[in-house]
Design a protein that fits this description.
Shape: elongated
Number of strands: 14
CATH architecture of the largest domain: Distorted Sandwich
Order of helices and strands: HHEEEEEHEEEEEEEEE
CATH class of the largest domain: Mainly Beta
Number of helices: 3
Radius of gyration: 21 Å
Length: 222
Protein backbone atom coordinates (compact mmCIF):
# COMPACT_ATOMS: atom_id res chain seq x y z
CA UNK A 1 0.00 0.00 0.00
CA UNK A 2 1.30 3.46 -0.91
CA UNK A 3 2.07 5.64 2.11
CA UNK A 4 -0.27 8.39 0.84
CA UNK A 5 -3.21 6.21 1.84
CA UNK A 6 -2.24 5.60 5.46
CA UNK A 7 -3.61 8.85 6.91
CA UNK A 8 -7.01 8.45 5.25
CA UNK A 9 -7.13 4.78 6.24
CA UNK A 10 -6.44 5.59 9.91
CA UNK A 11 -9.19 8.23 9.90
CA UNK A 12 -11.82 5.98 8.32
CA UNK A 13 -10.89 2.94 10.39
CA UNK A 14 -10.99 5.02 13.58
CA UNK A 15 -14.44 6.40 12.78
CA UNK A 16 -15.64 2.92 11.79
CA UNK A 17 -14.40 1.49 15.08
CA UNK A 18 -16.14 4.21 17.09
CA UNK A 19 -19.40 3.56 15.23
CA UNK A 20 -19.08 -0.17 15.79
CA UNK A 21 -18.48 0.31 19.51
CA UNK A 22 -21.40 2.73 19.57
CA UNK A 23 -23.99 0.11 18.67
CA UNK A 24 -22.24 -2.88 20.32
CA UNK A 25 -21.16 -1.49 23.70
CA UNK A 26 -22.89 1.77 24.56
CA UNK A 27 -26.50 1.75 25.77
CA UNK A 28 -28.79 2.57 22.86
CA UNK A 29 -32.39 2.83 24.02
CA UNK A 30 -33.42 4.37 20.73
CA UNK A 31 -33.63 1.59 18.13
CA UNK A 32 -33.33 4.08 15.26
CA UNK A 33 -30.04 5.37 16.65
CA UNK A 34 -28.67 1.82 16.92
CA UNK A 35 -29.64 1.17 13.30
CA UNK A 36 -28.00 4.43 12.19
CA UNK A 37 -24.76 3.53 13.99
CA UNK A 38 -24.78 0.05 12.47
CA UNK A 39 -25.28 1.35 8.92
CA UNK A 40 -22.66 4.07 9.43
CA UNK A 41 -20.19 1.50 10.75
CA UNK A 42 -20.68 -0.77 7.74
CA UNK A 43 -20.25 2.11 5.29
CA UNK A 44 -17.08 3.33 7.00
CA UNK A 45 -15.53 -0.16 7.04
CA UNK A 46 -16.34 -0.49 3.34
CA UNK A 47 -14.69 2.87 2.64
CA UNK A 48 -11.62 1.82 4.63
CA UNK A 49 -11.43 -1.38 2.57
CA UNK A 50 -11.68 0.68 -0.63
CA UNK A 51 -8.78 2.89 0.51
CA UNK A 52 -6.62 -0.21 0.97
CA UNK A 53 -7.65 -1.36 -2.51
CA UNK A 54 -7.15 2.04 -4.14
CA UNK A 55 -3.70 2.68 -2.69
CA UNK A 56 -2.39 -0.81 -3.40
CA UNK A 57 1.19 -0.73 -4.65
CA UNK A 58 2.18 -4.00 -6.34
CA UNK A 59 5.77 -4.76 -7.30
CA UNK A 60 6.57 -4.40 -11.01
CA UNK A 61 9.56 -5.45 -13.13
CA UNK A 62 10.49 -3.02 -15.91
CA UNK A 63 11.57 -4.46 -19.28
CA UNK A 64 15.17 -4.08 -20.42
CA UNK A 65 16.28 -2.41 -23.64
CA UNK A 66 17.57 0.87 -25.03
CA UNK A 67 14.95 3.44 -25.96
CA UNK A 68 11.98 1.62 -24.44
CA UNK A 69 9.39 3.86 -22.79
CA UNK A 70 7.11 2.16 -20.29
CA UNK A 71 3.72 3.34 -19.14
CA UNK A 72 3.81 5.70 -16.15
CA UNK A 73 0.34 4.55 -15.05
CA UNK A 74 -2.13 1.71 -15.02
CA UNK A 75 -5.17 2.44 -17.14
CA UNK A 76 -6.66 2.50 -20.62
CA UNK A 77 -5.13 4.17 -23.68
CA UNK A 78 -7.70 6.74 -24.82
CA UNK A 79 -5.60 8.72 -27.27
CA UNK A 80 -2.62 8.40 -29.64
CA UNK A 81 -1.71 11.44 -31.72
CA UNK A 82 0.95 13.92 -32.83
CA UNK A 83 1.10 17.29 -31.09
CA UNK A 84 3.52 20.14 -30.36
CA UNK A 85 5.06 19.96 -26.88
CA UNK A 86 5.78 23.56 -25.72
CA UNK A 87 7.27 23.11 -22.25
CA UNK A 88 10.45 21.03 -22.61
CA UNK A 89 10.82 19.32 -25.98
CA UNK A 90 9.70 22.39 -27.98
CA UNK A 91 8.92 20.30 -31.06
CA UNK A 92 6.36 18.06 -32.67
CA UNK A 93 5.92 14.85 -30.67
CA UNK A 94 3.94 11.65 -30.47
CA UNK A 95 1.56 11.54 -27.51
CA UNK A 96 -0.10 8.64 -25.68
CA UNK A 97 -2.98 9.47 -23.33
CA UNK A 98 -3.92 7.10 -20.50
CA UNK A 99 -7.13 7.29 -18.46
CA UNK A 100 -7.06 5.94 -14.90
CA UNK A 101 -10.36 4.89 -13.37
CA UNK A 102 -10.81 4.71 -9.58
CA UNK A 103 -10.33 0.93 -9.88
CA UNK A 104 -6.82 1.17 -11.36
CA UNK A 105 -3.57 1.19 -9.40
CA UNK A 106 -2.74 4.90 -9.03
CA UNK A 107 0.95 4.69 -8.14
CA UNK A 108 2.92 6.33 -10.98
CA UNK A 109 6.26 5.12 -12.36
CA UNK A 110 9.03 6.72 -14.44
CA UNK A 111 8.91 5.78 -18.17
CA UNK A 112 12.70 5.67 -18.77
CA UNK A 113 16.13 6.16 -17.19
CA UNK A 114 17.38 9.73 -17.22
CA UNK A 115 17.67 13.08 -15.50
CA UNK A 116 14.72 15.31 -14.68
CA UNK A 117 15.56 18.63 -16.31
CA UNK A 118 12.17 20.30 -16.14
CA UNK A 119 9.39 20.35 -13.56
CA UNK A 120 6.35 22.58 -13.30
CA UNK A 121 3.17 22.35 -11.25
CA UNK A 122 0.25 23.93 -13.08
CA UNK A 123 -2.81 24.76 -10.92
CA UNK A 124 -6.05 24.54 -12.80
CA UNK A 125 -9.53 23.10 -13.12
CA UNK A 126 -10.91 19.63 -12.35
CA UNK A 127 -12.69 18.67 -15.56
CA UNK A 128 -13.50 15.04 -16.34
CA UNK A 129 -10.09 13.47 -17.00
CA UNK A 130 -11.15 11.90 -20.31
CA UNK A 131 -12.17 15.29 -21.78
CA UNK A 132 -9.69 16.78 -24.32
CA UNK A 133 -9.67 20.12 -22.47
CA UNK A 134 -8.30 18.39 -19.36
CA UNK A 135 -4.89 18.20 -21.06
CA UNK A 136 -4.33 21.95 -20.79
CA UNK A 137 -6.90 23.26 -18.30
CA UNK A 138 -6.75 20.80 -15.42
CA UNK A 139 -4.37 20.87 -12.48
CA UNK A 140 -1.21 18.95 -13.42
CA UNK A 141 2.45 18.21 -12.84
CA UNK A 142 4.66 18.40 -15.94
CA UNK A 143 7.97 16.49 -15.88
CA UNK A 144 10.64 16.83 -18.58
CA UNK A 145 13.14 13.97 -18.70
CA UNK A 146 16.43 13.80 -20.62
CA UNK A 147 16.91 10.11 -21.42
CA UNK A 148 19.80 8.36 -23.21
CA UNK A 149 17.55 8.20 -26.29
CA UNK A 150 16.16 11.75 -26.24
CA UNK A 151 13.81 14.08 -24.42
CA UNK A 152 10.38 12.99 -23.18
CA UNK A 153 7.64 14.67 -21.16
CA UNK A 154 5.04 13.04 -18.95
CA UNK A 155 2.14 14.68 -17.14
CA UNK A 156 0.08 13.79 -14.09
CA UNK A 157 -3.32 15.37 -14.71
CA UNK A 158 -6.08 15.67 -12.12
CA UNK A 159 -9.68 14.76 -12.92
CA UNK A 160 -13.13 15.44 -11.52
CA UNK A 161 -12.46 13.00 -8.64
CA UNK A 162 -8.69 13.45 -8.44
CA UNK A 163 -8.15 16.50 -6.28
CA UNK A 164 -4.56 15.90 -5.24
CA UNK A 165 -1.44 15.15 -7.26
CA UNK A 166 1.63 13.84 -5.45
CA UNK A 167 4.91 14.10 -7.38
CA UNK A 168 8.12 13.22 -5.56
CA UNK A 169 10.67 14.14 -8.25
CA UNK A 170 12.02 17.54 -9.23
CA UNK A 171 14.55 19.01 -11.65
CA UNK A 172 18.01 17.57 -11.01
CA UNK A 173 16.83 14.14 -9.87
CA UNK A 174 18.27 11.03 -11.53
CA UNK A 175 15.59 8.39 -12.07
CA UNK A 176 15.32 4.82 -13.31
CA UNK A 177 12.79 3.16 -15.60
CA UNK A 178 9.93 1.76 -13.53
CA UNK A 179 10.83 3.75 -10.39
CA UNK A 180 7.88 5.03 -8.35
CA UNK A 181 7.56 8.81 -8.45
CA UNK A 182 4.07 9.74 -7.29
CA UNK A 183 0.36 9.05 -7.07
CA UNK A 184 -2.87 10.77 -8.12
CA UNK A 185 -6.02 10.64 -5.97
CA UNK A 186 -8.53 9.30 -7.41
CA UNK A 187 -9.61 9.02 -11.12
CA UNK A 188 -7.11 10.82 -13.36
CA UNK A 189 -5.13 11.06 -16.60
CA UNK A 190 -1.50 10.59 -17.69
CA UNK A 191 0.08 11.82 -20.90
CA UNK A 192 3.47 10.89 -22.37
CA UNK A 193 5.12 12.97 -25.12
CA UNK A 194 7.80 11.16 -27.14
CA UNK A 195 10.09 12.05 -30.08
CA UNK A 196 8.56 11.67 -33.54
CA UNK A 197 10.90 8.77 -34.33
CA UNK A 198 9.24 6.74 -31.58
CA UNK A 199 7.46 3.57 -32.70
CA UNK A 200 4.21 3.36 -30.74
CA UNK A 201 3.66 -0.12 -29.27
CA UNK A 202 0.11 0.26 -27.93
CA UNK A 203 -3.36 0.59 -29.45
CA UNK A 204 -6.45 2.59 -28.54
CA UNK A 205 -8.49 1.02 -25.71
CA UNK A 206 -5.55 -1.18 -24.71
CA UNK A 207 -5.04 -1.77 -20.98
CA UNK A 208 -1.55 -0.85 -19.74
CA UNK A 209 0.38 -1.40 -16.51
CA UNK A 210 2.73 1.14 -14.94
CA UNK A 211 6.40 0.19 -15.16
CA UNK A 212 5.76 -2.87 -17.35
CA UNK A 213 3.76 -2.09 -20.50
CA UNK A 214 5.87 -0.63 -23.33
CA UNK A 215 4.23 2.48 -24.81
CA UNK A 216 6.89 3.09 -27.44
CA UNK A 217 10.42 2.49 -28.63
CA UNK A 218 12.59 5.42 -29.70
CA UNK A 219 14.14 4.35 -33.01
CA UNK A 220 17.88 4.74 -33.72
CA UNK A 221 18.59 5.21 -29.99
CA UNK A 222 22.32 5.23 -29.23
Amino acid sequence: MHREGYGLLRLLAGLALLSTLGYMVLPTPDGAMALLLRVTSILLWLLAAFIIFFFRDPEREAPKGLGLLVSPADGTVIGIDEIDEPDFIHARTKRVIIFLSPLNVHVNRVPEDGEVQYFRFHPGRFLVASAPAASTENEQSIIGLQTPAGKIVFKQIAGILARRIVCEIRAGHRVRRGERFGVIKFGSRMEVFMPLQTEIKVRLREKVRAGESILGEIQHAT
